[in-house]
Amino acid sequence: MTTLNGTIVRANATFCRWTGYAPDEFIEHSTIQLLLTVGGRLLFSAQVAPSLLLQRSVVEVRVDVTRRTGGVLPTMFNVSRTRHGDDEFDEYSFFVVEERHRYETALIDARRKAEQGLEARAKAESALQAINRRKDEFLATLAHEPRNPLAPMRNVLEIFSLKVLTDPQLIWGRDVFKRQVHHMTRLVDDLLEMSRITQGKLELRKARVDLVTVLTSAIEDSRANVLASSHELNVAIPGEPILLDVDPTRLLLTIQNLLDNAVKFTPPGGKLWLSAHRSGNDVVITVRDNGIGIPQADLESIFEMFSQLQNAIDRSQGGLGIRLALVGLHGGSVQAHSQGPGQGSELVVRLPVAEEQSIASATRQPSMTRPGTAAGC
Ligand SMILES: Nc1ncnc2c1ncn2[C@@H]1O[C@H](COP(=O)(O)OP(=O)(O)O)[C@@H](O)[C@H]1O
Ligand SMILES: [Mg+2]
Questions:
Q1: Tens digits of per-residue pLDDT, 24-83?
Q2: Half-sphere exposure (CA, 13 Å, Cβ side) for 267?
Q3: Whole-model pTM?
Q4: Pairwise CA distance, residues 32 & 106, whole Å
């Protein structure tokens, strides 16, 4: 820092080190001009001093500074005129040109490396996207192909079901065939659903449906499964219709999956509960079991695509970990509750009831709502 005529009043340690002076050697005794070479002094009086007077700052002035021990230091400085109380001073910041040059080269180098890194990353990302697209296409093909052989197999099953069989071996064979075809169909449906989502081709076909009818057919559908595992299914659903505006096929698949999960993630001879009740403008569907349970830390992650928990994999019976990830598609919400491993699980789906029904029930007396009916299976 200097006075307006150039007398140095303050210099930091780095400037002293560069020039070779002790602070008290030039402070108050030397001027900034005296530190410059002859050429530098000329430049100072011809350009720097007038510019400071006019615009109060000058940037990037290239001058050589003489060192105490002889020799010169190539520098560049910026200077600005500042007020401190009643007095005005000129504040200089010097850079050693070589260091600045080195610093700039390092900056350019770093920028080039960062750009190369970004380019490599963009390439890797687009390669990954291409692989991901191919995987999605492959899964879509994989999902479609088994539909063709499955159709005639289902037809044959229909014919078998119409026959009255007496041979226990044939009856056993037909039941195995039926269960496996049923299972295959579910897997293929799941794969198809997933590939529709990943390819953005999912279409929800919403219609007015009665939840009670859907629940009844889901129960009917899982009856054989429940019996095969010697579980007891307790059902408590309303006796009157509950109208929803949803895609009926997908709602049925959702409830079937909740029941399937309860069946397969509960050791044989377990207890399962299915209930549904109105709650304001929503209907709450709950499927509970006393099975293997879900660790607290995984209560959220089970809703992610392909998520199958370690303790469930042995029992997954070839599931794909897709169905729970699709529940939110109906515009409703789903939550999992469990006290932890071995403590059973409770899956709760909440869906809005159809608008007219919610308006109608709002004007109805609460006492007119019929209580739920209970049934065993
Ligand atoms: N009732 C349940 N009890 C214990 N774990 C469950 C239950 N329901 C779901 N899960 C866990 O959530 C995962 C995802 O379920 P889902 O999407 O239906 O896939 P999948 O049935 O094909 O395994 C299951 O693999 C399991 O780890
Ligand atoms: Mg499942």
A1: 888 877 899 999 999 999 999 999 999 999 999 999 999 999 998 889 999 999 999 999
A2: 6
A3: 0.60
A4: 31
What distance in Å separates the CA atoms of residue 255 and residue 272, rounded to the nearest whole number? Answer: 13
Look up the CATH number of domain 207-376.
Answer: 3.30.565.10
Q: Are strands 373-376 and 232-237 parallel, antiparallel or unpaired?
A: antiparallel
CATH class of 118-198: mainly alpha
CB of 302 shorter than 6 A to ligand 1: yes
What are the residue boundaries of the structural domains of the chain, listed by start? 13-102, 118-198, 207-376
- Integer Cα distance of 61 and 38 in angstroms: 15
Q: Indicate which residue's Cα is closest to atom 15 of ligand 1.
A: 321
| Whole-angstrom distance, CA of residue 364 vs CA of residue 135 | 53
Which among 194, 261, 317 is the best mutation to test ligand 1's pocket, defined by most ligand atoms within 8 Å of the CB? 261
User: Beta strand pairing status for 72-84 and 57-66?
Assistant: antiparallel
On whether the CB atoms of residues 372 and 238 are closer than 8 A, the answer is: yes
Two structure tokens written together for 225 = 């499964």
CB atoms within 10 A of CB 112: 10
